[in-house]
Amino acid sequence: TSVLSRWYKWPSAEDLIMELLVVDANNDGINDAFQVVISDVTRYELDIFNRWGERVFHSEDPDEVWIGNVNGGDHYAPPGMYNYRLKWKGARTDAEEMLGTFELMR
């Protein structure tokens, strides 16, 4: 599987933010987790929602990744489209919010 992602230079952010477009949680070492690459933040919040709007992941730790499980349990989310909401505040920037969609494959 190729790496399917894109990088953003957020207007008020000093660092680039990477958005994954596809997560294929199949343990092949490529795109196995949804991860936000961001640094120098004082506040961070990531939520991932299924197609019915139910939250399946929440984190306030920028180093935490989502491996496709539902709310940290042993149940894994089915393949499909998922939405995310990323909120952060940089050390020298105002609070920001980014919304996006990605596909979970198995």
Rounded to the nearest angstrom, the radius of gyration is 14 Å
Average pLDDT reading: 76
Low-confidence stretches: 1-11
Q: What are the secondary-structure elements, in order, as H or E?
A: EEEEEEE
Strand % is: over 45%
Report strand order across the widest sheet. Answer: 3-7-6-4-5
Q: What is the strand tally?
A: 7
Content-based structural category: mainly beta
Number of helices: 0
N/C terminus separation: 12 Å
User: Helix amount, in percent?
Assistant: under 10%
Overall 3D geometry? globular
What characterizes the major β-sheet? 5 strands, mixed
What are its keywords?
five-stranded mixed sheet; 7 strands; mainly beta; 106 residues
Structure report:
This protein has a 5-stranded mixed sheet with strand order 3-7-6-4-5, with no helix packed on it. The chain has a two-stranded antiparallel sheet with strand order 1-2. Helix content is 0%, strand content 46%. With 106 residues, it is mainly β.
How are the elements arranged and paired?
Blueprint: E1 5-9, E2 16-20, E3 22-24, E4 41-49, E5 55-59, E6 80-90, E7 95-105
